[in-house]
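[Structure tokenization] protein backbone as discrete codes
[Encoding] learned vocabulary of local backbone shapes
[Protein] chain in single-letter code, fold in tokens
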Amino acid sequence: MNTGRAAALPQPGYTEPQRLVITSTEVRVEAFPEDGSAPRDIDLSALPVARPMQEWLASAVAAATGPSGTLRTPASHHNVKSMLMRFTRHLASFSRPPQRPDQLRRAHIDGFVLAGGRALHRDLGGLRSLLRQAQPPPPDEFWARLSTASTPKISGRLSSYSEAEFRRIMSRCKRELRAAATRIRHAGAHLADWRDGHISLADRDAWEYGSLLDHLDRCGDVPRSANGTPQRSVHRHGGTEALTAALYLTYDEMVAATVLLICLTGQNLSTLEAATIEHLRPDGHTEGTASALVDLVKPRRGSRSAHMSVVWSQTAPDGSRSSDQLDTPFGVFTLLTELGHAGRTRLGTNRLLVFYTHRGGPRGRGLRAGLPHSAIWLWSRTGANLLCDPVPGADEPAAPLHLDARRFRLTFLELYQRPVAQTERTLANQYLARNRGNIAEYQRLVATVLDQQVAAARAIRPMPVLTTTDMVKAATDPAAHDLAAETVADLVTGRLDTVLAGCIDNRNGPYNAAGQPCTASFLLCLSCPCARATPAHLPAQVLVHDELQARRSRMTPLDWAQRYGTAATQLADLLNQHGPGAVDDARAGATEAQHDLVNRFLRRELDWS
């Protein structure tokens, strides 16, 4: 996002830190996460392979974790070491392990695949990505086998939630956030009154409560005695957890907020976990639809595509307007910005997800930014209390609903049929095609939409097609086709050509005010009463029809049916009037100029702007 600020540049005398460290006792890479968190040492001297292999793998890790590499998050830095440990343990199991990179062979990958393991499908992809960076490159035999190695996920395929389950999940999350907003706003107002002197010492409980909130806001913790236990006043006002929850979102509430944001945007958990509150307001804070332009990062898209600016607006994912703030991405984003302000100020961070935890762990209690990847799974087991849809005809009670960020994303993609941080082809072939949760229902929906589009196309009077014979006859007898003589002459010479037809009345069509030039897409000529097709238009019609059919594999079936179903049917009916031979001849005889015209038309370069 361009905010108009100059980029930070190194100071004079700056030298790049030494990231690859190879000494007599260690082989390690110092990796710098893109989010600005503390550097991480990836120690490869513990890998159970010979020193030349360690150094070779370290050079690849250094390249992959560098500024232009693909491993730019703390999680990916941890995962690459785990992956290399599994692979090198396999290499060490051979009777004659490879001592140098040039000794790697096809058999080393074959054995790795046969050994299996729950993470094998990820390890193979991770090895391919990593060893592309290796210098010298891996031996050809080894690389050829690694390039083609694949294995299915042991965990099986994910399926989407049902619509009812999805609604219950979002409803549960909204209840958590509404309760949190009410509590934090009430405490914030009490603290403001206390600081402004509006609470008298005579009201001992209210004054003491304001004092505790003030201490918590300034210090990030409740007042404690010398031995670390909370002071008695803390217990009089509900204890540590109740007081910290008065100013800060709790761990469970932050999980609920993150789940809701995934359900409303379709973004990955890791992308939202690293999100910040930095944004622009394209709406200019006017009375129109409120929106925020937010910068997000999805590292696995590669260095060129990882950064993306997305618009979160005050509209629900289905395009409808809602008065409920928690029905829209913009509403949840602004609420989290508001409720996390105190914690964000205390931490000195701009991260969107900020909460207070009492769950301990390596860092103990306190404020945190971001969210552990296991948080949603733990919440579903301990606090969400959600159930699956009941099985029809079964006497058993409904099973607990397992919450999974990947399933939220998959359900979003299925429900709304639009790509999120991926191409339409990836959405169709790698997400929806693998989802078996509601595939039969989806297929029925696509079939219904296609039937509707075909029916709509054939309910419209087809565009008249003038054959070569008709053109000759019209030149001598224009009235035979209800055309003026000059119109016929212009039609014959091509002066009335659009892309797919000729237009006999540009100022009195159905898509513009009377007397005004038509500004409709040329694709609408197929259903316009002012359009006339001649043999000269057949090559363009064939090329456009071919491209619309080709787009079926690059789009979701529903999106294709909705956008191109009618036009594809009309073009198919037009081509059927000419016969297969004439269509093949037109395709083969299409000129370079006609190909260029069709390409510009389909890229929407010819649309009225």
About this structure: DSSP finds 23 helices and ten strands in the chain. Residues 496-602 form one domain. The two ends are 25 Å apart (CA to CA).
